[in-house]
Amino acid sequence: ERNWQIGDRFRSIIDDAWWFGTVESQQPFQAEYPDSSFQCYSVHWDNNERERMSPWDMEPIPEGTAYPEEVGAGVPVTPDELTALLYKPQEGEWGAHSRDEECERVIRGIEQLLSLDISNPFAVPVDLSAYPMYCTVVAYPTDLTTIRRRLENRFYRRISALMWEVRYIEHNARTFNEPDSPIVKAAKIVTDVLLRFIGDQSCTDILEIYNKVKAEDLSSTDEGEEVAEVDVDSDAPGTSSGKRRVRRRIKRQPMKASPDAWKEQCKQLLNLIYEREDSEPFRQPVDLFSYPDYRDIVDTPMDFSTVKETLEAGNYTSPLEFYKDIRLIFCNSKAYTPNKKSRIYSMTLRLSALFENHMKNIISEYKSAMQCQKRKRPRYRKRLRSSSSSPSTSR
């Protein structure tokens, strides 16, 4: 790390050219992250422009450096300078082999993995036109093709960085989808297979590891469960979209359609929301001493603790009332903090997307249960009337 001081001269690569400037001051870019180095330096460029810079974007000026003929202009970067700036892996950072050897081995493994149907949901980036909320829920999207291209470009400095990104395939699927959904189970298998392959540097056939993992997965199936083919449709993106077929375990259990099932489902959803760090600003009522103008903007305050108390007291008559109150929390947040670049606005969007994704299933199941109950009642009454009006044949 370079410890830049006020008045230090530096240069930085922008658009294939060196640009020169001077450090003017240092302070955190965001007050809530005082130890972060991100854009912590205020700099004055030689062309009289000012900007915030991160220390890793600034380079010392070597002796004998050629300056531009015109003050404030740039100097083209030479190929040798670009090569010199590239990271040189240290011994052991790629295991027993070199980075080039390991990158090529893993590239071949990913190509083999992409030939399997189970990897289809994670082959390419998510189609954001089909899933516009995906990027508000998933902070670090990734997929097998992106990882392969980064290996080809020697993007990863260490093998640990590669493994870190591979783990995000499962993490992202679990974040965006139901924990027990087929897409999450498929993501776990794909991630496990690739991590084992990366860890075993003597392995050249990833399909051997896949078959082993699949056998372990099948052997762990509980009694009363069986393996069946199911469609993973576009409502459950892993990374890419479209219809995919994966293998999942399903339990043969009778269908249950209880009109009151929503109560427990809403409790579980509320617990899930409380587990998210994004929910912290909305867990308790807004402090009117800290935000005295809040009631001037928000007519009906609402928070998660109030919703929880109402739910536990049994004062919601349907999930639609629960849904309305949660939506009110997000609407109030956007009304009081309309700045789309603010942290609280981003937290609101992520939490809202998570809530909507789970709530649509709860409401759908509730409506189906109510319709089922209504269909049963008329037939029951009709049978009662028919039996009471029929003449007795017994003596």
TrEMBL record:
UniProt keywords, alphabetically:
Bromodomain, Phosphoprotein, Repeat
Bromo domain location: 114-184, 274-344
**UniProt-listed GO biological process terms:** cytoskeleton organization; regulation of cell shape; regulation of transcription by RNA polymerase II
Q: For bias kind Acidic residues, which ranges apply?
A: 221-234
- Regions of biased composition (Basic residues) lie at 242-254, 374-385
Location of region: Disordered = 221-258, 374-395
Task: Give the record's GO CC terms.
Answer: nucleus
Q: Pfam families this protein is in?
A: Bromodomain, BRWD_AD
Q: Where is the composition biased (Low complexity)?
A: 386-395
In terms of domain of life, where is this protein from? Eukaryota
- Does Repeat count among this protein's keywords? yes
Zinc: is it a keyword of this entry?
Answer: no
PROSITE patterns the UniProt entry points to = BROMODOMAIN_1, BROMODOMAIN_2
Could you tell me which InterPro entries the record lists for this protein? Bromo_WD_repeat, Bromodomain, Bromodomain-like_sf, Bromodomain_CS, BRWD/PHIP_AD
Q: Quote the PANTHER family the UniProt record gives.
A: BROMODOMAIN AND WD REPEAT-CONTAINING PROTEIN 3, WD REPEAT DOMAIN 9
Name by which UniProt lists this protein: Bromodomain and WD repeat domain containing 3
Protein source organism = Hypotaenidia okinawae
